Amino acid sequence: MPLLRLERVSFRYPSGFALREIDLEIPSQSFLALIGPNGSGKTTLLRLMTKLLEPESGHIYLDHQPLAKFARCGLARHMAVISSEQYFEFPFPVAQVVAMGRFPYLGRFQRMSNQDWKIVDEALEMTQTDHLRERPISQLSSGERQRVLMARAVAQKPSILMLDEPNAHLDIKHQISIFRLLQFLNRKQGMSVVVVLHDLTAAGAFCRTVALLRQGELVKQGKPEEVITTEVLRSTYGADVLVYPSPLGGFPQVTYRPETGDRRQESESRSQNSESRRKPET
Ligand code: ADP
Ligand code: MG
Known about the structure:
The protein is an alpha/beta fold. The chain contains ten helices and twelve strands. It has a single domain, classed as Rossmann fold, CATH 3.40.50. The longest helix is centred in the C-terminal third of the chain and has 18 residues.
């Protein structure tokens, strides 16, 4: 049975954009990438799956229970969410931010136990943020903040982790380390991961399944090599790309050229012309 199930879920903003009849099953221990062009509804779908928005019609079930029935605290014991726009104005020390991951497990007025702090320490270590523990969260770089948010999510010990473009502000080394951490949580700790991604190569390299949204509809889902193909990307994104199997393991890798074929030919012929003009006339 799937951990999270969406049945014909529809939703509409007053502005007019709509998600239409989304059917999606997220089994336990899965690692799913949600991809799609800008404005195709990825963040909106994530908000529906994390109960930040309510569907207009259709049903969402988490662990066989209607998502609508979960109270915030109960939901937080199952699901951790890292949204793309999470800012901290108050200078909480990092360790305190990570400790917030334990709050769903504490009764009212109950204090953190030694066991809770041990979980916080482990989360800081796992995300390589231990050295930041005393630093105010408001003064970190966006890459450091992203790893602290990961630490908080790890401390929350959810069965499903939802992230919206977690690699958006990270350099390549930290992107890889975030995805490897997600893989570790998925494979070794049995956590399901759902991640909204712009980066199609990362989706191909790290995720086990990919779901593609276009204009509010889920148009394709399957293994990375089934969804991330030259034809699908050209037709969905309208982008002049080429997908080929990576030499590092055969997963789909997306590439493109700096100029269109036509322009390249034009510039080549232009440079040939100038070459010939430069040649001394005989
Ligand atoms: P994506 O994450 O795929 O880029 P979004 O889910 O953020 O797409 O947005 C889908 C569409 O819904 C866009 O056209 C966007 O302008 C619109 N939209 C997003 N948030 C809101 C909102 N709070 N109110 C009205 N329209 C919104
Ligand atoms: Mg988005």
